[in-house]
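Q: Convert this sequence to C-alpha cells.
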Amino acid sequence: MKYMMEKQLTQGKQCNYQVTFTFTDAEKAGVKNHVLEHFAKDMNIPGFRAGKVPLHMVESKVQPAYIQMAITEHLVNKGIQELLGENKDLKFIGEPYAFDTKEDKGTTTVSFSLDIYPEVEVKGKSWEKVQMNALSVEATEKEVEDSLLNIQKNYADYKDTDTIAVKDTLSKLGLEFFDKEGKSVEKGTTYLGETEFAEDKFWEKTFDGKKKGELVELKYDTKKLPAVLHAKKGEAASLKVTVQDVKQIVLPELNDEMIVKLFGKDAEVKTNAELRDYIKKEILKQKQESWLVQTIEDYLTEVKKAGVSVIIPKTMVDQELKVRMQNLEKRFGSAEKVKEYFQQLGEEKAKEFVEGVQTAAAESLEKFFILNKITELLGLTIDWNAEQEPFFVEKQLYTKLVGELETPADEKKATKKAPAKKTTKKAE
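A:
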C-alpha cells in the first residue's frame, strides 16, 4: 500500500534532526491486518496451524493497546525507510531516540530524534605534514620458546609431589584474610603455577621450596599482591596462605604425534621445525596488528593537534556507552552480576568505572569520525558498512602513507624496517 503520512525533518542544534510523522486513523486501519498477521505467526491456538489463526481471533487475544503500539511502530519504521531514501545526502547513524506520541482527532503525531554523522572540521593543511611510523616488529627466540611451552602445558600431565618448584609445579593455595584485630574477613583459593603471578619474583622467593601442608603468613600489601588476590570484604591487614596441594607438571614431548594432535593429519604443519616457523609467523602477525592499531592511534592524535576536530553529540556517546555496558553484562553473565561487581567496588569507584567507559566511548567515536574524514581526504574509497578483513581500513591508510604492509609470511620482510619516508600526501 502507498503511505501518505506527512513527514517533517528539522535540523537540530547538534548533529541531529527532529523527525515528525503524522498519519491518519485511515492509514492506521490500512495496516492493521498486516500487523495482526505478524501476531498470528507467534500465536499457538489448538485446532489451527502456526500462522493460520483467523485475524479476528488474533485480535480478540491481543490487548488493543499492544495492537495500536504495533501499528504505530510499523508506520514509523516505514516512514524512516522513506525518509532515508528521500535524503540520501544525510548520513543518519544510530537508533531513533526521544520519542513523543500525540493523539488528536483522527490523527497520530510521532516525533523523535535521529543523529547524523558529525561534521569533522579541518583547519588548514597542517595535518598533511603529520608522519606515520614505519613497521618494525620481530619475533624473538624466547617468545617462540614461551609459546611452545604454553602448548606443552595445555597437554601436560600432573603427578603428586610434596615440594613447590614454582616453575615446574602447580600448587593449590588456601587463602584466609584477617583484619587488624586478627578476625577472619574472607577465605578463598588460588593456584600458583598457571596464574599471572607465577613468575613474580616475590612469589617465587616466598613459595619456592615450601611443602604441602605448610602455612605462610604475609602482610596484606596491595603493591605485592596481584589483583586476583585482593580482599573484597573488610579491611584486610594480613594473609595466611596454606599449601593445600602440589602437582608436578609433566610436559609432553613436542613430537610428530603431538603436532598431529594439534593440527590434524592433513595440516601443512607436520614437523617440529614447521611448528616453530608457524608460531613465529603467528607472533609476527599479532605484533604487527597490535603495532598497527597503536600507530594509527598515535597518528590520529597528532592529526587532531594539527587542526582536525569533531564534536560528538552526547546522545551518540550515550548510545555507545549503552552498547558497551551491554557487552559488559554479557562478559559477566548477567546485569545482576555487573550490579554485584559495582557494589563490591563501592559507589565512588563504580562511578569512576562508568565514567571511564563513557570517556573511552567518546574517544572511540572521535577517532572513528576523524579516521573516516582523513581517509576521504586522502582519496581512499572505503565502504564502512561492508564486511572487511580485520584492520582493513588501518592497512589501507598505512599503505597510502608509508607503503605496502608486508605480511609475516616472509620473515625477512616482516622483520625488516621499512625505509623512512614522508608519510603523508596531498589529497588528490
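Confidence is low (pLDDT under 50) at residues 411-428.
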